[in-house]
Amino acid sequence: MKIKVKHLFGVLYGCLFLSILAGFFVHLYLHPEVHFFWERLPVFSAVYGFIGCIMIILGSKAIGHLWLQKDEDYYEKHE
Predict the structure, then answer these.
(1) With contact defined as beta carbons under 8 Å apart, do 38 and 44 qualify?
(2) Which end of the chain has fewer CB atoms within 10 angstroms, the N or the C?
(3) CA-to-CA distance for 13 and 10, rounded, in angstroms?
(4) 24 and 40, same structural domain?
């Protein structure tokens, strides 16, 4: 039995929806203890994580371009 791609996307979107719904109900009923005022913002963690991921990607690309990568004719120059 072959699993079709559209069925896998349906499962993925279903799991994503259930995860978002569970997160909503956890914050609605459990009232987690907050230590700082920005933790009260409803999407702070998501925005902070997204910005952190973008910074990691940009930083690793900068390190790759400035330090790790060599020119195409690097070995021909040094012979």
Answers:
(1) yes
(2) N
(3) 5
(4) no
